[in-house]
Design goal:
The protein contains 8 helices and 7 strands. By secondary structure, the protein is mostly helical. The protein has a domain of 165 residues. Strands 1-2-3 form a 3-stranded antiparallel beta sheet. A two-stranded parallel ribbon has the order 4-5. A two-stranded antiparallel sheet has the order 6-7. A hairpin with a 7-residue loop joins strand 1 and strand 2. The protein is rod-shaped, with a radius of gyration of 51 Å. The relative contact order is 0.06.
């Protein structure tokens, strides 16, 4: 009668409990496999651990919320496992009399809890799968972004290097850089001239002063001197070398074989004058025509070809000396 129906109902409930227990075990196994795959993928990634991964991909607030959800689900899982274990123990301890006395409401309550737990586990499984899918998308997007960054980095490095050399809002840095290159080339040309005029001196740029020069004295163990300390003869040699270098610089490889000097000898002493004239003789010997305009009498003995002029009455009026008239 009623007892048989109750027993049948209990047996049906027992079957459902067994099914739910198996479903729980299956869900636990699926979750475990997913976590193993997740841990394997994480160990092969650039992230140190799971915490490092989630911090890299999601905001801190979302990360903490997921952590709390995991804690709650783990707690619910433990409770469900405990309930399942208790239910199994109760089933083993039941006898016919206990089954007869067992209330249907209690079994229905246990069944409801198990169904609820199964639903929560299914939800958790879906959340984990969604996170894995999102992680895969983020990784693919990240790899594309890293490739783009690496490609752009080369261009960026070039511009940074150029900016360090010539970058400034007013253009002064670029002008100074360009002037420095021109000055370096001018110094190179001047040193070539100095090596022909007088092998003692060479020019170089002054340390810390981008566009200023100093002189290297090769007869004094390559000591350096400020150009302001040069004597009259030394200044003449350096100025002459720079003038010749400048003519080479602006001539665009066209040979300039004529040089005219207007004065500049009256302030030189005899020794300095000899140094200057020796340098000019050296240029003349190399095929250059040297013209000098001067009132210095000592030059007459060193210059074989001369033209004399004399001053006439009146301001700024001169004519050839009688000896040189046609």
């Amino acid at each position: 009668g009623a007892v048989d129906k109750t027993i049948t109902k209990i047996q049906q409930l027992h079957g459902k409990i067994t099914e739910n227990k198996q479903a729980i075990k299956d869900q636990i196994e699926i979750t475990r496999q997913i976590e193993q795959k997740w841990c394997g993928a994480l160990s092969q990634s650039i992230f140190v651990d799971e915490k490092n991964f989630f911090q890299a991909l999601i905001p801190e607030s979302d990360f903490k919320e997921l952590q709390q959800l995991k804690i709650r689900l783990d707690k619910d899982l433990i409770q469900a496992q405990t309930l399942s274990s208790q239910a199994e123990q109760q089933l083993h301890s039941f006898d016919v009399q206990a089954i007869k006395e067992l209330k249907l409401e209690v079994l229905q309550s246990h069944l409801h809890k198990l169904r609820k737990l199964t639903a929560e586990l299914n939800t958790r499984q879906g959340q984990i799968q969604q996170q894995l899918d999102n992680d895969k998308k983020h990784r693919e997007k990240q790899q594309k972004l890293l490739k783009s960054i690496k490609k752009q980095q080369k261009t960026y490095d070039i511009w940074i290097h150029l900016n360090s050399l010539i970058g400034s809002a007013d253009g002064n840095k670029f002008r100074a850089y360009a002037q420095g290159l021109t000055l370096d080339y001018l110094i190179h040309l001047a040193n070539l001239q100095l090596s022909q005029l007088h092998k003692r001196y060479q020019l170089q740029r002054k340390q810390g002063q981008a566009l200023e020069l100093q002189v290297i004295d090769t007869w004094q163990a390559d000591s350096t001197r400020d150009t302001k300390t040069l004597s009259g003869g030394e200044s003449f040699l350096v100025s002459l070398a720079l003038a010749l270098a400048l003519s080479d610089l602006v001539s665009h490889k066209t040979s300039i074989d004529s040089l005219f000097l207007d004065e500049g000898f009256g302030t030189l002493d005899a020794q300095t004058l000899d140094i200057a004239l020796d340098a000019l003789d050296n240029l003349n010997a190399k095929g250059k025509m040297i013209g000098i305009i001067s009132h210095v009498e000592a030059l007459k003995e060193r210059i074989p070809v001369q033209i004399h002029i004399k001053k006439q009455s009146g301001l700024g009026v001169s004519c050839l000396h009688d000896d040189y008239k046609l």
